[in-house]
Write a structure and sequence with these properties.
Blueprint: H1 29-45
Length: about 45
């Protein structure tokens, strides 16, 4: 993932917060891996 904006001809948008909601009673390895990837990748860009 990468941040796109002014350099690509797009308007600059304000910062935002993202939340991930997961059902602890119904999860799969794919969901856990996606969650881990998003947390790691988004934290690096913060």
């Amino acid at each position: 993932l990468r941040i796109v904006g002014g350099n690509e001809g797009l308007p600059v948008l304000p910062d935002l917060e993202i939340g991930i909601l997961r059902n602890p009673l119904s999860t799969t390895q794919a969901v856990e891996r996606l969650n881990d990837f998003l947390r790691r990748d988004l934290a690096q860009q913060a």
